[in-house]
Specification:
Low-confidence stretches: 95-99
Helix content: over 70%
Order of helices and strands: HHHHHHHHHH
Structural class: mainly alpha
Oligomer: single chain
Mean pLDDT: 78
Largest sheet: none
Distance between the termini: 37 Å
Length: 198
């Protein structure tokens, strides 16, 4: 029983630890100490919802209707490009750092939700892949596996969001933020291109 849970946790971590748009945003918010609690909560809740849905059998439904993932792919690519433009604009204007610090909680929640649910890879990873792997454990252990995967998500987003606070003192320079915003913009463009090409 514990083996299924640990396997689920390690599998979940392996899928979400890769740097992507969502992780970059969580890291940025954590460093800025801006609404990080709600950002982490939205990411964890989103992962938990999708993992549970996949374990309950929604993964099979999604694989029967690939058009849903196609729509998410293009919407996700468009959103990533828009996010890249915002990051590049922030990199060009260092004064925008102070303006961005006052983003509303609702705006941050909307951005977190978009980066979570407009990424078709999150559906492939959590709903299809983790859901399939959970169901391969058999009826008695599938929810243990799913619980392990959710635990991995909770551990990761907590560490990423709140661990970033230790870097806040080092990263107070506008020049440093210019570099971070430019790097995030480049990453968003690369991810958008990868979404379109796959």
């Amino acid at each position: 029983m514990w083996t299924a849970g640990i396997t689920g946790m390690l599998t979940g971590l392996a899928l979400i630890v890769a740097i992507g748009a969502q992780n970059a945003f969580v890291l940025r918010q954590g460093i800025r100490r801006e609404h990080i609690g709600v950002v982490v909560a939205v990411c964890m809740a989103g992962d938990a919802l999708l993992i549970v849905a996949g374990t309950a059998g929604i993964g099979a439904l999604v694989t029967q209707f690939p058009g849903v993932l196609e729509v998410l792919r293009w919407a996700g690519a468009a959103y990533l490009l828009w996010f890249a433009v915002r990051s590049f604009l922030a990199a060009v204007k260092p004064s925008a750092l102070e303006e961005q610090a006052s983003r509303s909680r609702n705006s941050v929640i909307a951005t977190t939700a978009a980066l979570t649910f407009l990424n078709p890879h999150v559906y492939l990873d959590t709903v299809v892949l983790l859901g399939s792997l959970a169901n391969q454990q058999g009826p008695g252990l599938r929810w243990t596996f799913a619980g392990g995967a959710v635990t991995g998500s909770v551990l990761w987003f907590s560490a990423l969001g709140y661990g970033a606070r230790t870097l806040a003192g080092v990263l107070t320079s506008p020049r440093t933020w210019r570099w971070i915003d430019a790097s995030i913009g480049v990453l968003m463009v690369i991810l958008a291109i990868r979404l379109v090409l796959h």
